[in-house]
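Lab meeting prep.
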Amino acid sequence: MRRLAVLALAAIAAVSLAGESVAGSVDYTFSFTSGTGVTPTVQAGGTLELTLNSGSTDQYTVTGATNVTISGTAIGPTSESLTLVTNTSAPSSSTDPTSGIQFDNQIVLANGLKMLNDNGLLFSGPSGLYVNFYTPGQNNADFALIHIDTTYESNPSGTFSLSVPEPSSFILAATALVPAIVTAARRRRRARAAH
């Protein structure tokens, strides 16, 4: 019985610790698609690492990004990989010295909403491309694109969405383990009581 109790406590602790790490830093996939009839067209997407800001329950800093790409007529016939421009002043805004774009890399996740703000997320590409996803007045997703070489600017509106991450298999396994341990402990108690 003691052995089962220890296993149950270990499983609960594992789930608890895993839950804390998810609350602190978690990956979300994002996509952006320009609206119907909007020119130039833009499609973008990738994975963002969000880290909960100290003292906040709903405001996150995007601290990393992987597999981020952009394509569409806004950047020509090819697609381009993008790299997150780091905001060393987070959660306050910064101005990128090369592009002159103000950004803060902040996302609010509250009551089912996933919102960018006026400053938004800033990415750069190998061709000198700078891409800023932002939401003016936090009403709907929007997008601004600046190419440094030609100072090409456009603001096609569209939809920016984040997908809710799936729980890791570790959390699922630990969660499933707790009821199994409790059930086994009950059966053992019943078997002892019957003797």
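Slide two material, second protein:
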Amino acid sequence: MSENSDVVSVGRVVGLWRYPVKSMGAEAPSEAEISWHGLQGDRRWAFIRNDAARSAFPWFTLRQRSDMSQYVPSFADPNKPDTSKTLVKTPSGEIFYVDDQSLGLDLCADGARVIKQDRGVFDTFPLSLITTQTIARLGDMVGDELDVLRFRPNILVEADEDTPFLEDSWVGHVLTIGDMRMRVDERDGRCVVISIDPVTAERNTEVFRTVTDERQRCLGVYGSIVDPGRIAVDDKVRLESPE
């Protein structure tokens, strides 16, 4: 960080999540190491539809199976999430290694195969962030209390300013959180999966419709890493002014 940079506090971290398998359930560590490829262990595994060889979006996700977030991954060695064997507990209580073919068959009758991508299987950028105020305001707009995991962020921030969608104004800036610095690159373009309740797997189409009509289909922000480092719940979030 430049010694002449103006830095202001804009909030604090109130939640951290990583998703060991794309579209499956989340882990909520109290602290996490951020590498050049996001939270260690985040979205390193993903399932591919057997019929998607030529698809621009080959992943088997919540779009195909709305209860996929109820499959719960975990690491055999939590201290080494990027290299640990990964286990998945199914909604019925069975436990498989993530690369067990039986898990792919459990997910999809036609079968789905899993791949590991050390850089992470991200749709756009390796970090996603949203504020509590934004989620609360959208909930008011649709008349429902919305679970944060519907939006699958890595970082949940309680902003100092009680203003929804404040994170949009951070695009183009750098945030310092703990030992890590991230550049806020763009608003987070959303798809229909935000209509799915992560607990019940029920769909509320009004959520995606409202984000599309009122927010240009964007909610929260995406970012990339400027300086890797460790972050933790309760860390201050500081905004650097562009030089």
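Talking points for slide two:
The chain has a mean pLDDT of 94.
Residues 148 and 185 are 21 Å apart (CA to CA).
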